[in-house]
Structures are given as C-alpha cells and as structure tokens.
Amino acid sequence: MMKELELNNSDPEDIEFLLAKVEGSFGIRFHGKELVHVNTFGEMCDHIKNKIVLDHEDNCTSQQAFYKLRGALMTALQIDKETVTPDTLLKDLLPKPIRRSKTKQIEKNLGFKLSLLRPPHFIMQYLGLLFIGSLIGLGFSWQYALVGLGLSIAGFWLAVKMGNELDLRTVRELVEKMSREHYLKSRRNPKTYNKNEIEKVLIEWFSYDLVIDKSKLTRDASLT
Fold it and tell me: pLDDT by residue (tens digit) across 52-80?
C-alpha cells in the first residue's frame, strides 16, 4: 500500500514551483533565504499573509471570480447569464470544434491565462517513452538517438500547443482554479484582498498541486 502523502515528504522542487505560482497569484516576491526559518504550514501561511501589502476587504473572491468568468463566457460564447451556473459542464460550453478558439477569447476577456487545455494523456506517455528511449539509445547509436530526441521535443511542443482536452469538469472547478492561481486578478478590485481567505486558498492549493489530503495540512504540519 502506498504511504499516505504528507507535506514533509513532498518533493522540494514541487514546493518551490508551487511557491513561484503563489508569488504570481498574490503579487508578492520571496527573496534570498527568507523562508529558511519557516518550518510549518501555519508559519508559511502567516508569512505569506504578512507579505501582502494591500487593503483588506471582507468579501468573497470565489464569488467575484464566478461573476468575472460568467461575463467572459457570455461575451465569448454569446450566451445568456442563465446558461452559466457553478454546476454547468465546461464540455457543454466549450465543445471540441470551438474549444481552443473560444478559450483564447475567454482568456483575452479575463486578462490572464487559464491553462485550461492539455494534450491527451496517451500522446504525452508515448512522447515520454520516445524521449527516455532516445536517451538510452545515445549509448548505442547517437545519430538515431538524436533524431528521436528531436522528434520527442518537437512533439511535446506541438502537443502542448494544440492540446484540446479538459482537466476540469465544471464552471465551479474553473472558478476555484482562478481563485487560486489568479487571486488578485479574480477580484473586483485587484488592489484589495481578504486576509481571512488566504489560509483556506493555500490549503486548497497545496492539497491540489501536491496531492495531499486537506486534513493533513494543519498549521502544525511540518515542511521538512
């Protein structure tokens, strides 16, 4: 049985990548070794909250994100607001023939990238096997191996560029993603924040990105 995932067992590179996204979402920057003395999840949440130098407004970012997304969908898809509810399926709003073009319009209306589309998993798995096989092949026939590496790298680029699959199911899930990854831009006034939400947003984010059960993300959860 696989060991239950804990915060202190997470890959440091995954945490570092996640913190880079946190910087962009909350408009903050970590400098040098300022996090070296942060040992628990609670300390991390407090440190991040203290770095956000904006006016506090006690209102719901997720609600504001929903209204922003609904407006962007209405404009891009030429639909009525009654069509868009939190439980509306994204595949119904964005059928495959128009999915890429309409997603770009929605992102333009919002003013930020949603990173909503991905290539099919089987294509990425095939390209991954080709890349690994080509690396191994360098010891046998470097000419063919270089061709394989070139094809796999070009394939990854094209697959990501042309990806048309949805990882999220509903408008609600997309709103949650917006509220995490574009927290300030999802608010009606991006020069404000709700300090009471930050820890909850971070719990959702660490749980989603690091695949950790939310019950494990207590304030005492160790980072090391």
Answer: 999 999 999 999 999 999 999 999 999 99
